[in-house]
Design a protein that fits this description.
Helices cover 32% and strands 13% of the residues. The protein is of the alpha/beta class. Strands 1, 2, 3, 4, 5, 6, 7, 8 and 9 form a nine-stranded mixed β-sheet that branches. This is Glycerophosphodiester phosphodiesterase.
């Protein structure tokens, strides 16, 4: 009996040692360089994030502005890249005249002087709107951007033309598979090298369509994020990468990262081998995957020498700390 116990203990130790060697980041090659910074919505006006709901008008709860940039505009995107962003995220909606409008909200009522569902309007109509109309930091007493952003809602082709060699993340706001088909047609008309610099995320149905029709564009959806991370936590110790993590944008909440086998370097290497890009988000607490690494304290929680992606709503501040800000 004693011999059997010793043999069993030896096997257990050997297996544990094998799992450790296969997964420790200490023995993994370190990818050098600075982190890849993603500016969520470009440089945007910040707002009170407490008790947010899906239909909360964030423009009406803007914090006192420290700059005059508005999200999802060419000017904001350009400033983001100049501030140190490697990639900018933008939101799109199909329009009734066959375009894609770059705008965050499902309706235009909150931010603009228009009314109605964004995707039920023509791009010609959307181009007439003042996209700074609804912003206020004092409960409606003043509107500092009114009249200053008429006609500034861009189309997706305008963004692609303005930044022909820049990395972009396109957010599909709907769950309409048909929208994914339309977006895939736009992407497939681009050169292969340009498509490689574009990623798509959003609703499961449109993203699945883009993934099928434009297989060289890396994608992620809410369901795919869960499938990728849960699957990897479950059996990533084997070295196997879940299918949802392949050719993907892998979004990792910073409080989930320590649970990933081989975090950080071995995990980053495995994702790179799967043609996937990793971006760390702010802590996940059961809500939306949109909080960012927005404070020095959160940035300090990343491992020293981390060279993967960082998702942030505060590109100017984070770029400076990360050593990628303006000279």
């Amino acid at each position: 009996m004693g011999r059997k116990l010793r043999f069993g203990a030896a096997i257990t130790i050997a297996v544990a040692a094998g799992i450790y060697i296969n997964n420790t980041s200490l023995l993994a090659p370190h990818r050098g360089g600075k982190p890849v910074l993603l500016a969520h919505r470009g440089i945007a006006q910040r707002f009170d994030e407490r008790d947010l709901k899906n239909d909360t008008c964030t423009a009406a709860r803007m914090l006192p502005p420290s700059h005059d940039y508005l999200e999802n505009t060419l000017r904001s995107m350009r400033a983001s890249f100049e501030a140190g962003a490697d990639m900018v995220e933008l939101d799109v909606h199909p329009t009734t005249d066959g375009e894609f409008a770059v705008f965050h909200d499902w309706t235009v009522d909150c931010r603009t002087d228009g009314h109605g569902v964004t995707r039920e309007q023509s791009m010609a109509k959307l181009k007439t709107l003042d996209i700074g109309y609804g912003y206020t930091a004092d409960g409606g007493k003043t509107f500092p951007f009114r009249g200053k952003a008429v006609g500034m809602m861009p189309t997706l082709p305008e963004v692609l033309a303005a930044f022909p060699d820049r990395q972009l993340l396109v957010n599909v706001k709907s769950r309409d598979a048909g929208e994914g088909q339309k977006l895939a047609a736009v992407l497939n008309a681009l050169p292969a090298a340009r498509r490689h610099a574009i990623m798509v995320y959003g609703g499961d149905e449109p993203v699945d369509m883009v993934r099928r029709l434009t297989p060289d564009v890396r994608t992620i959806s809410r369901a795919a994020i869960r499938s990728c991370l849960i699957g990897y936590i479950g059996y990533g110790w084997t070295g196997l990468v879940p299918a949802a993590c392949n050719n993907a944008m892998v979004l990792v909440p910073i409080n989930v990262a320590p649970w990933l086998w081989g975090w950080p370097d071995r995990f980053l290497n495995r994702m790179a081998d799967a043609n996937s890009a990793v971006f760390v988000l702010g802590p996940y607490s059961g809500g939306e995957f949109s909080t960012g690494i927005d404070t020095p304290e959160l940035l300090a929680r990343l491992p020293q020498g981390y060279s993967g992606g960082i998702w942030t709503n505060e590109i100017e501040a984070i770029a400076e700390i990360a050593g990628k800000g303006k000279d």
